[in-house]
Design goal:
Blueprint: H1 6-11, H2 19-33, H3 41-54, H4 57-73, H5 83-91, H6 94-97, E1 110-111, E2 115-121, H7 123-128, E3 130-141, E4 155-157, E5 166-173, E6 176-183, E7 192-194, E8 208-219, E9 228-231, E10 241-242, E11 246-252, E12 259-261, E13 264-272, H8 273-278, E14 280-285, E15 291-296, E16 306-310, E17 326-333, H9 343-349, H10 375-382, H11 397-400
Parallel strand pairs: 1-10, 2-11, 13-17
Antiparallel strand pairs: 3-8, 4-7, 5-6, 9-11, 12-13, 14-15, 16-17
Helix pairs in contact: 2-3
Bound molecules: zinc ion (2 copies).
């Protein structure tokens, strides 16, 4: 006779069932009840817990004799194993069993984390391409012990946690008993025990050692911010896992003279007034060792702020290295003053002055002078108008004067 049959009923076997019958019955039920298949997670948990107990001959014996209460009294014998873990153990990977869907647990060894590293790259380097060395320290499997942490056969499963690395504790919380998981203190959460004298001296039993590794990052011409360069399997090694990748993410540093939009470049250049009016030349320092020599043909007038383009002088595109264009905004540096005696020459060369606007006959022409705004007036003119209190009636000096 058994004390209670709840767990047997859950799995759907008789209390006389042997191990393989229990396993078979559980498999069948668990497949249907798995949350990935739309099953109720709580039910699945109970079912799995029942199996966990009945599949362990010690626990089953306790259960048969004293029921659930007996298991709880056993101290740390109660469930608490992740049902998904047990499921995975039984079917060789929970996710994998259902065709790789849902869940991070897949069949086969676990994959380690990727190491993501951002590097700032100058626009010059993205223009020309560069090989950048990047030193990083990573964990590698200890060669002396081949990742065992000690002598062959010296490692045994921790008896404190049965190799799980965690212990399930029961804690009284008011009228309830609460199960809490804690890392196993005896094995420091590793699930393994070793006699200290068998420990590998090279890695002090840690199985891995830290090693400096220099990666050569090939920054290809035309790469952009956010682009990734992957070093497969170069991340931290650990026993039983496939190392993740080292992922280098390109970050373009802002440039003083150039702005980049896709494969095009934008810059500004300043020319003097004479060049703007009468032609001449200027140069733009490029991102490589060159400077672009630009000629402004006499006869064309360059207006302040005009946008011009130099074809094929932008960034190379990634992979194909086709060149984008270089847009140049031309600013004109005006002289502060001009000798009065040359003005007649200007009058000869330039279009005639415009007539003073008449605004119809009713307007009386009031004689005024243009002054340099003082500091307060400059601030006032530069503000967006919110704090125009006493100046409001006069109107901002910069506003009306703009009209001729
Ligand atoms: Zn070692
Ligand atoms: Zn342990």
């Amino acid at each position: 006779m058994v004390a209670e049959t709840e767990y047997y009923d859950l799995i759907g076997v008789s209390p006389n069932a042997d191990e393989s019958e229990i396993k078979k019955a559980y498999r069948k039920k668990a497949l249907k009840a798995h949350p990935d298949k739309g099953g109720d997670p709580e039910h699945f948990k109970e079912l799995t817990h029942a199996y966990e107990v009945l599949s362990d001959s010690n626990k089953r014996q306790v259960y048969d004799q004293a029921g659930k209460a007996g298991l709880e009294g056993g101290g740390g014998m109660g469930g608490g194993m992740d049902p998904q873990d047990l499921f995975s153990q039984l079917f060789g990977g929970g996710g994998g069993f259902f065709g790789g869907g849902g869940g991070s647990r897949n069949a086969g060894p676990r994959r380690g984390k990727d190491l993501v590293h951002r590097i700032s790259v100058t626009l010059e380097d993205l223009y020309k391409g560069k090989v950048q060395k990047l030193a990083l320290s990573k964990s590698v499997i200890c060669k002396s012990c081949e990742g065992r942490g000690g002598k062959k056969g010296a490692v045994s499963t921790c008896t404190g946690c049965q190799g799980r690395g965690v212990k399930v504790m029961l804690r009284q919380l008011g009228p309830m008993m609460q199960q809490i998981q804690q890392p196993c203190g005896e094995c420091e959460g590793t699930g393994e025990m070793m006699n200290p004298k068998d420990r590998c001296k090279n890695c002090v039993g840690k199985k891995t050692i830290s090693e400096r590794k220099v990666l050569e990052v090939h920054i290809d011409k035309g790469m952009k911010s956010g682009q990734q360069i992957k070093f497969q399997g170069e991340s931290d090694q650990a026993p039983g896992i496939i190392p993740g990748d080292v992922v280098i993410v390109i970050e373009e540093k802002p440039h003083q003279r150039f702005q980049r939009k896709g494969d095009d470049l934008y810059c500004e250049a300043e020319i003097d007034l004479l060049t703007a009016l009468g032609g001449g030349e200027f140069a733009i320092e490029h991102l490589d060792e060159r400077a672009l020599h630009v000629t402004i043909v006499p006869g064309e007038i360059i207006k302040p702020g005009v946008l011009k383009v130099i074809s094929g002088q932008g960034m190379p595109s990634y992979r194909h290295h086709e060149l984008g264009d270089l847009y140049v905004k031309l600013n004109v540096a005006f002289p502060e003053s001009i000798p009065v005696n040359v003005i007649p020459d200007l009058e000869k060369a330039l279009p005639k002055r415009r007539d003073v606007q008449k605004f119809g006959k009713k307007v009386h022409l009031d004689e005024v002078t243009l002054e340099e705004p003082n500091d307060r007036q400059r601030r006032s003119a530069a503000s967006d108008g919110d704090d125009m209190d006493e100046d409001e009636e006069h109107g901002g000096p910069g506003v009306q004067c703009a009209q001729q």
